[in-house]
Amino acid sequence: MIWQTARFAMDLSRPRIMGIVNATPDSFSDGGLHATATAALRHCEQLLLDGADMLDIGGESTRPGSPAVPLDEELARVLPVVREAVRLGVPVSVDTYKPEVMRQVLDLGADIINDIWALRQPGAADVVAAHPSCGVCLMHMHRNPQTMQVAPMDGDGVPQVLSFLEHSALHLRALGVEKSRIVLDYGIGFGKSVAQNFALLARQSELLALGYPLLAGWSRKSSLGAVTGLDVSERLQPSVAAALLAVERGARVVRVHDVRETAQALAVWQAMHQQDRSDRNTHNNEENPA
């Protein structure tokens, strides 16, 4: 399975790690740590050393209750980082829902648009459709960042998320965007209860039946705190566990803060699966000798 992006055709036959770069003063986990372009670029370089396959740069916090950031401010945060990050030799994703930010980062050479609104803002889908090959991640969000956790979804969230993502992808394809450019994200923490979040993880196979690669963004989310009692700064181990569970259930990309630890855990997971395939091949050859 290939994820086609602006400059790279990413092979998703093995799970890929998207490292989070929050060029913001107020993100829920690491806001302020990488708020200058210099600090954000140092963080990009460290994430790549730690094992990230791609970078996801964002200039607006979308934690529950967060206010919207003016366009000029988001551009001032993001553009200097993207301008340098595209020289690092890996796909660069930009986490934004504003069409003008999309347009400008794509002009700088960004590879992927990662949109919590799934291109529902006026003009956003047109920007992506006008680009010849950029990748896009369409995420499910109930309501908006200001209200999503005030009144989460009712009932079984899985069919609601599935229907939304299916229609979002079909709308984009109707605009001429190739299927190979699209990845889906079920939006952990974006307008869902703890039970709904874990139901989406447990039932990822239903989302995978849509035929698109799946991105899972469990890193340090509040649902992990709800089941462990841990503060956001203490959620490394639960985050790695959730990433592994998502990959085991078919996710092809995990979006994480803790790249090094996630990469180490995935190396163990991959070694086990490689040995399992080798053992099965040996067994089949013994049963069916040439």
Secondary-structure blueprint of this entry?
Blueprint: E1 2-4, E2 9-11, E3 16-22, H1 37-50, E4 54-58, H2 71-85, E5 92-95, H3 99-107, E6 112-115, H4 124-130, E7 135-139, H5 157-174, E8 182-185, H6 194-202, H7 204-208, E9 214-216, H8 222-228, H9 236-248, E10 253-256, H10 259-287
Parallel strand pairs: 3-4, 3-10, 4-5, 5-6, 6-7, 7-8, 8-9, 9-10
Antiparallel strand pairs: 1-2
Helix pairs in contact: 1-2, 1-10, 2-3, 3-4, 9-10
Describe this structure in words.
With 290 residues, this protein is α/β, with parallel strands linked by helices. The chain has helices at residues 37-50, 71-85, 99-107, 124-130, 157-174, 194-202, 204-208, 222-228, 236-248, 259-287, and strands spanning 2-4, 9-11, 16-22, 54-58, 92-95, 112-115, 135-139, 182-185, 214-216, 253-256. It has one domain: Dihydropteroate synthase-like (TIM Barrel, Alpha-Beta Barrel). An eight-stranded parallel barrel has the order 3-4-5-6-7-8-9-10, surrounded by six helices. The chain has a two-stranded antiparallel ribbon with strand order 1-2. The radius of gyration is 19 Å and the shape is globular. The protein starts with a strand and ends with a helix.
